[in-house]
C-alpha cells in the first residue's frame, strides 16, 4: 500500500503569506549546485500511550511522553518513486540528480552519506515539483526554448557545446533532463514570486535615507561578506538536522563547493545565489551569526550555529572597512624572479642556492636592478603589471600590503616547483569606497523583506500537497 501524506486539507493563505520572492537565480553554477535540502520526511506510524497522563505539551501536539511504535518504520527509507499531486518522480529522476551531486564533489561521496543524500534529493525534487505546479496554476509556463537557451549558457561555462555537455552528463550517469528540470523550477518559482510579491512590497524614501545615514556614521567599521546555509529544524528533528549540518560542513572542508551545497541544501532564499548574503556589518546579522562572523578568518567555515528556527552554516568570504578603501584592492606592478632546480634535487642540496637567492634579494636596489640581480643568480625575470593584491594567495597579500616600492618579498615556493620572489615596482591604491546608491539600498531592503516570505510560501505548498510514496 502506498503511504499517503496529506500536509493539509485546506489552504489558509492570506495575501501576506503568499507574497514572497527570491532573487533571480544564477544559472552559471547550476551543474555544481545540484544538491539537496536537508530535512526529514515524517512517516505516519501507529503509536500507543504508555502513560496516558504524561504528554509533551512543548511540541504543541499533545503527544505522550513515552511512545510505543507498532512495527518497524524508518521515515527516511522509501522506494524512490513519489507522486506529488498526481505528478510522478521516478527512481531515475533521483539517481540522475544524485549523479550531479557526485560530479560537484569530484565523484567522491562516502558510502554512509549516499543514502542520506538520496533522501534529500527526493525532497528537493518534491519542492521543485510543487514550485512548478504552483507556477502553472498561476498561468506561468516556462517555454522549452528558454530552458534550452539557459542550458546552452550552462554548457558554455564548461567550455562545451550543448551536445558535448549532454554527452558529458551521460558519462556521469545523469542527463540534460535533470538540469532542464532544475532550470524550469528556478525560473518558474522566481517568476511566480516576482508577480505575486514584488508589487506588494514597499520601501519608503525615509527608510533608505536612514540606511545611508547609518552607513556614513559607521564609516571605517568592519564589514564582512558571508555565505549562509540555513537548515530549519523543529524540536522533534533538531538533533538530526544538526547532524546533517555537520555532515555538510565536513564535505565542504574536504573540498566540496560551499555555493553548490548552499544552492540546494539551504532553505533560505539566498540559496539561488549560492548562499551569498553580500556585504553586511556584523550588527546587521542575528547575534549568533554576528559573533561567529567576527571571530572567523577569511575562508573559514563555521557552524552548525543554532539560530531561531534551525541551524546556520557560515562561510566568511571576505572582510573590509565600511566606506573605506580596502588596501587589497590596490593594483601593483611587480617583477618576479624565479629559480628552478634539476629533477631529483633534495631540499638540503637546494638550501645553499636558496640562501644566496635570499641574500641577493636583500641587497637588491629596486626594480631597476632586478634584472641584473636575476642574471647573476641564473634566475628568470618576468614583469607582472596590473596585479590586484586581492587576487594573490592570502599569505602574500599581507606581506605586499606592507611592502615599500623597491623592496622584495622573501623567497617562497618549493624545490619541485621552483623558488621565486616578487619585487614591488609600483602601487596604485584603491579610491575610498562610496556608499551604495539609493536604488541599490532600496533594492536590498525589498529583497530582504520579500525573501522572508519565500520560505512561508513553500512551507504552505508542502502543507497543502498530497504526496504518495510507493
UniProtKB/TrEMBL annotation:
The UniProt record lists the keyword Protein biosynthesis: no
Alphabetized PROSITE patterns for the sequence: PPIC_PPIASE_2
Domain PpiC as annotated: residue spans: 221-318
Pfam family, one: Rotamase
Database matches in SUPFAM superfamilies: FKBP-like (SSF54534), Triger factor/SurA peptide-binding domain-like (SSF109998)
InterPro entries in UniProt: OMP_Chaperone_SurA, PPIase_dom_sf, PPIase_PpiC, SurA_N, Trigger_fact/SurA_dom_sf
GO molecular function: peptidyl-prolyl cis-trans isomerase activity
Record's keyword terms, sorted: Chaperone, Isomerase, Periplasm, Rotamase, Signal
Domain of life, source organism: Bacteria
Cross-referenced PANTHER family: CHAPERONE SURA
Name of this chain's protein: Parvulin-like PPIase
Organism of provenance: Sphingobium subterraneum
